[in-house]
Design goal:
Keywords: Methyltransferase, Transferase
Strand content: 15-25%
Number of domains: 1
Low-confidence stretches: none
Order of helices and strands: HEEHEHEHHEEE
Protein name: SAM-dependent methyltransferase
Organism: Paenibacillus amylolyticus
Structural class: alpha/beta
GO molecular function: methyltransferase activity
Oligomer: single chain
Shape: globular
CATH superfamily: Vaccinia Virus protein VP39
């Protein structure tokens, strides 16, 4: 369960899932042991009837199988306010870079301590879209590679959810050369009719 101050509870809730060292003003950091994506009880205890405006998940969903990803998305959907969204970034299966693909592969490249050792899926824009749509979301593709490896970028505001491992911000992308990209989507809970 996460603990929020009265000040945090009085503002629109913006949550970082699996924050690690990510810390941004007005965003509440969470770690898996406080807020497990697959444990509805954690969410009920943490938020009760309070709805969340934004959920930020940078390189989290690849640690879930496709089925677990759908279940986690359904839980998030239930706790988001109408027009709230998940900004999700994951490794991109269609990025044409052999070194990158070796690093992000299922099971990771090396010892179990490596962050990628627990990867269960490497999404492409079709699988992540399908996964979030199964949970009821409408998808906006922000950054992704298509089947031919061509990179696509749709402008997005980092103030709405900062993703370091992105075209704009990752230090490995220099001189119009892509060194590291993420598949980035906004999964939006549409206003109910």
């Amino acid at each position: 369960m996460i603990k929020m101050s009265e000040n945090e509870c009085s503002k629109p809730l913006k949550i970082i899932i699996g924050a690690s060292s990510q810390a941004y003003p007005d965003w509440i950091q969470t770690q898996e042991e406080e807020l497990n994506l697959l444990d509805r009880a954690d969410w009920e205890e943490s938020f009760k009837s309070k709805k969340i405006r934004t959920i930020l998940a940078e390189h989290v969903w690849e640690h879930l199988s496709y089925e677990e990803g759908v279940e986690a998305a359904k839980i998030c959907y239930d706790f988001l306010e109408p027009e709230g969204y998940i900004r999700c970034a994951v490794p991109d299966a269609f990025f044409r870079n052999e070194e990158y693909q070796n690093i992000v592969q299922i099971g990771g490249p090396g010892p179990k301590e490596h962050p990628a050792a627990s990867h269960k899926i490497v999404h492409n824009y079709k699988t992540i879209t399908s996964m979030f749509e199964e949970a009821g979301f409408k998808i906006k593709l922000l950054e992704y590679c298509d089947e031919s490896g061509e990179f696509h970028f749709n402008d997005w505001n980092p103030e709405d959810g900062f993703i370091y491992r992105s075209f704009q911000f990752d230090h490995r992308n220099k001189n119009d050369e892509l060194g590291f990209v993420s598949l980035i989507v906004d999964a939006v809970k549409e206003m109910s009719e």
